[in-house]
Amino acid sequence: MDWQSEGPELWAFLEPLHRGDILSGTVAAIERFGVFVVLDDGPGHPTLPGVGFIGIPELSWRRIDVPTDVVRVGQRVSCEFLGSDTCNAEAGLTLKALEPDPLQAFADRTVVGQELRGTVDKVFPIGIFVDLGDGVFGLVPFREVDGRPVASPAEDFEVGEEIAVVVVEIELPTRRVFLSRPESGQYAGGVLPT
Fold it and tell me: I need a surface site. Which of 4, 129, 149, 174 has the fewest CB within 10 A?
């Protein structure tokens, strides 16, 4: 369907929007792949429940099981505009951009070399993912990666087990936290700071 010719009022609404604009509306439908929002002052959509759409990764900084962990039908929301989806003629939106980023807060209060306690969340052949709380997860690799220390074999860890870890690196641009296991005061960068 050629949305520009078939839905001129829809394009007249979407075209002047800029990334970062704040839009408000009401959650119209929740699907397993995302949430449709009827935007205030926005036109109706000819085929979708709303002209705004929030994909699952844009609902929250935290890991969620289902969209209803964050929103419900009929709820009023304020979202940041990401861009227009020209295939579906909808406004791509994010809820999480308007919330504090837990990884940034973690980086602000944590230093490399700091020892923390966390819970083993997942065990993979590459390493273990550790839940550090507040929606922040870090990786303890099983083999050396870029000079990072090696953890014990996978069979030494159980999901749900609480363990001590040392922060090796926090990469905000890639949203990754690398960890190691504390061993007699040593970590990848040398002696732990006191």
Answer: 174
Cα–Cα distance list, 22 to 9, 52, 71, 79, 81 (Å): 20, 12, 18, 6, 6
Which of 98, 122, 147 delimits the end of a domain? 98
Residue 89 to residue 51: CA distance in whole angstroms: 7
Span 139-193, pLDDT tens digits: 998 865 444 444 555 567 889 999 999 999 999 999 999 998 887 344 444 433 3
DSSP-derived 3-state class of residue 158: coil
Q: Does residue 194 belong to any structural domain of this protein?
A: no
pTM (predicted TM-score) = 0.74
Give the CA distances from residue 117 to residues 111, 164, 190, in Å, rounded to whole numbers and listed in that order. 14, 5, 20
Q: Are residues 76 and 125 in the same domain?
A: no
- What are the distances in angstroms from CA 158 to CA 65, 81, 155, 177? 21, 41, 8, 20
Q: Which domain holds residue 35?
A: 3-98
* C-alpha span between 122 and 65 (Å, rounded): 15
Q: What is the dihedral of CA 11, 13, 16, 19, to 10 degrees?
A: -100
